[in-house]
Amino acid sequence: MPAGKIEVSASAPAYLETAVTGLEISEGESKENVVLSLKRGKELSGRVLEPARGTGVPNATVSWRREHDASGQSFMTSGSGTFMFVPNSSTTDADGRFRYEGLPPERLIFSASHPDFQDATKTVDAGSEAAVDLTLSVGGSIAGTVVERDGRTPVAGGEVSLEEQGGSGTSWRNDAVRADGSGRFRFDHLKEGRFRANARAESGRSPARDVVLAPDQRIEDVLLQFEGGTRIRGRVTGLPASRLGGLNVFASGQDFQSRTTTSDDGAFLVDDTPPGALRVTASTGSLGRSVGKTVEVPEGATELPVEVEFEVGSRLSGRVTRAERGISALWVSAGPDPPSPSGSRASSRTDEEGRYELEGLADGAFRLQISGENVNVSRRVTVSGDTTSDVALGSARVSGVVTDAASGE
Q1: 26: helix, coil or strand?
Q2: Which of 153, 206, 213, 161 is nearest to 189 (CA)?
Q3: pLDDT 10s digit of each residue in the chain, 409 long?
Q4: How far apart are CA 314 and CA 339, in angstroms?
Q5: Cβ(34)–Cβ(397) under 8 Å?
Q6: What are the residues whose beta carbons fall under 8 Å from the beta carbon of 151, sequence distance 6 or more?
Q7: What are the residues facing 139 on neighbouring strands?
Q8: Cα–Cα 20 to 30 A to 381, which of 18, 99, 282, 387?
């Protein structure tokens, strides 16, 4: 670990987490006999119930958060995408029961969710209450039909997306279903709020449509009609011919997102793009390079040629070590500093000797980020031609013992 002031924390089942802060540690120093005393937390049990008969709901997800916390969920990003993470979560048993130990003695918000119902929440004083029941609800629904440009022909198998909109237009939830053979679609178990629906298929896409849903309301007549747009006929250049095929291409604009891959010669197509600014990005994968450009799609244009070029660029390389030993399998990435949507980016992992290499960067300032198990380093690097930036991680060490605050054991 790096030298300086550090915090050491400890946790255990049925105990409250504790921490020792402000420990001063020098480079290469070993800090011994650090004691962290844990106190037992509160216990609470309960059931998740279905609304009609009041019976228990098995396999429901239950979680809790402190009353002053803004949200009980966060998001994690990996090479496969972005996923919602719910801390302090558990699953109900066959009778809908759940149990928690080690709770802080304060007001907590408990939530329950299940794919067949609308979520339920309840605030509980864990310092004085030991049980809570959470009754789910059926919720509202939004249903409708996807049709072609003629307004009559149903789009069987079209993908329909429904996004829950926050107060500022931010998307909080994104569900997707396929239309049936009659072009019909349905989203159930929705809470009240504002939603945005749109549909897409090989034959086109529909403009986004906003829908306002009241509590437990059933809306059955949402019509999503395809409309024409501009075809982007693109090509990726700047890479060896053997590497032009299978690249990921992303296009995004106002109420529009699309993803495709290149053919063996680097060509790609994006259909039905709306007029206005469109961001087109090509990527060699999660461990590699990406480059993008913003183009203006003219109103009424049927086709627009776009070239996305991987420039030769400069190279940033180096070695990540701790106590002069290379650290393997660390995630290394470099992006423009300050951030710029048009700047070049690259990422890779360190090899068995801790070495990394990032190619195709433009000359200039970059933010080099290195992350992995117990590693999170960020530094500013100026790239010009072949640039080397070695990173030596701190080698300080802290050890100690975790005890029961009541017994001292």
Answers
A1: coil
A2: 213
A3: 667 888 888 889 899 989 888 888 888 788 888 888 999 999 999 999 998 899 999 999 999 999 887 655 544 444 444 344 467 899 999 999 999 999 999 999 999 999 889 889 999 999 999 999 999 998 899 999 999 988 999 999 999 999 998 754 444 456 899 999 999 999 998 889 999 999 988 777 888 899 999 988 999 999 999 987 899 999 999 988 998 999 999 999 887 888 999 999 999 999 888 889 999 999 988 667 888 899 999 988 889 999 999 988 899 999 999 988 999 999 999 999 998 877 788 899 999 999 999 988 889 999 999 999 888 999 999 999 999 999 998 766 667 888 887 888 8
A4: 18
A5: no
A6: 225
A7: none
A8: 282
Spatial separation of the C-alpha atoms in residues 310 and 116, rounded to whole Å: 47
* Inter-residue contact 56 to 95 (CB < 8 Å): yes
Question: Is the CB of residue 131 less than 8 Å from the CB of residue 122?
Answer: no
Reported in sequence order, the residue ranges of 52-192 that DSSP labels E, i.e. its strands, are 61-66, 74-78, 81-85, 90-91, 97-103, 107-113, 120-125, 131-135, 140-147, 159-165, 171-178, 184-190
Burial grade of 134 (CB within 10 A; 0-12, 13-18, 19 or more): buried
Rounded CA gap, 380 and 359, in Å?
17
